[in-house]
């Protein structure tokens, strides 16, 4: 067994995450389904990559000066990534979050030393939306930059350069499909563009939760939302700058119930404690794998993103009372 590589800098711990063959999903799909273990990043989510990419880009452009402040609006994980990177580089952090996100994310941000501002959840068209609030705070704060993860294409660029390249190398150039959900769009667009540069025949699929509008956009050309989802950090109602030109070949819509079923199975059968976005991604990967099998592709291989750790949702999807209040199925072991 090869020993892990020595790192010269703590920020080098971001990325180069393991890729694992998921047994249950592979059996369900009739092909090989792989999960990119983004929970292995220092901030326990895929958003560490965007945080590092955005901050390094701001430094290179001269916008972020020593001792400066980074302001961002986020469902939580990007804020956690920014706070960790900012601490390592000597910056301050102000994070704006909707107040309906998990308590664990809020507690984590405060523990990391970030200044946390919470606002009521509202539509993007509302001037008090968390994204607009974070932009105003950045404008009002001396020495601050606005990370702007949704429309800052440094987010997408880091996935082209790192996540896609890692997947291609880890799968030895034998990858038939990739899918994940979209929040900012940086991951799906960046990985899609990066993988297509290696092989145009790799099928890129959007996996959208209910309540988001991108499924209908890519299927019918119209931004139209149906239903709702409790998943945090995914689901989008507009075409962000990161999503512009994303090479989406097909799309799937996945319910919270189906995503939670895979969250439960991956924990009970494979020992992976994940968030709901990961469960939705895995369900989408199975749908993509089945599609490729039905088309006659020989032993297709599909990859997806295991976005973050389930320990970030102990008060929500791993809490029986919370699930019951939302009308969602309670994991069997939580009922005992």
Automatic annotation (TrEMBL):
Keywords: Amino-acid biosynthesis, Pyridoxal phosphate, Transferase, Transit peptide. The keyword Amino-acid biosynthesis applies. InterPro entries: Cys_Synth/Cystath_Beta-Synth, P-phosphate_BS, TrpB-like_PALP, TrpB-like_PALP_sf. PROSITE patterns: CYS_SYNTHASE (PS00901). The keyword Transit peptide applies. CDD domains: CBS_like (cd01561). It holds the Pfam family PALP. NCBIfam families: PRK10717.1. This is Cysteine synthase A. It comes from Pontixanthobacter luteolus.
């Amino acid at each position: 067994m090869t020993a892990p590589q020595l790192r010269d800098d703590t920020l080098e711990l971001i990325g180069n995450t393991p890729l694992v063959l998921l047994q249950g999903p592979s059996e369900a799909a009739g092909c090989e389904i792989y999960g990119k273990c983004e929970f292995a990043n220092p901030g326990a989510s895929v958003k560490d990559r965007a945080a590092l990419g955005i901050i390094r880009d701001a430094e290179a452009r001269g916008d972020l000066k020593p001792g400066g402040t980074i302001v961002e609006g986020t469902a939580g994980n990007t804020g956690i990534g920014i706070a960790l990177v900012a601490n390592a580089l000597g910056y301050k952090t102000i994070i704006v979050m909707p107040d309906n996100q998990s308590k664990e994310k809020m507690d984590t941000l405060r523990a990391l030393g970030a200044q946390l501002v919470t606002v009521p959840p509202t539509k993007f068209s509302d001037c008090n939306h968390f994204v607009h609030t974070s932009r105003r705070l950045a404008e009002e704060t001396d020495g601050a930059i606005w990370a702007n993860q949704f429309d800052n294409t440094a987010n997408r660029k880091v996935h082209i350069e790192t996540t896609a390249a890692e997947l291609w190398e880890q799968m030895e150039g034998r990858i038939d499909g990739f899918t994940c959900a979209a929040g900012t769009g940086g991951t799906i667009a960046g990985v899609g563009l990066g993988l297509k540069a290696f092989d145009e025949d790799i099928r890129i699929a959007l996996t959208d939760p209910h309540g988001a509008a991108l499924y209908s956009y890519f299927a019918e050309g119209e931004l139209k939302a149906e239903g709702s989802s409790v998943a945090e950090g995914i689901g989008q109602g507009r075409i962000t700058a990161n999503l512009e030109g994303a090479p989406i070949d097909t799309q799937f819509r996945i319910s919270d119930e189906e995503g939670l079923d895979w969250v439960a199975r991956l924990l009970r059968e494979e020992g992976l404690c994940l968030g709901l976005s990961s469960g939705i991604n895995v369900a989408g990967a199975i749908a993509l794998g089945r599609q490729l099998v039905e088309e006659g592709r020989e032993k297709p291989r599909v990859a997806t993103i295991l976005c973050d750790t389930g320990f970030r949702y102990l008060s929500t999807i791993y809490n029986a009372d919370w699930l019951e209040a939302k009308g969602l199925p309670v994991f069997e072991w939580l009922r005992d």
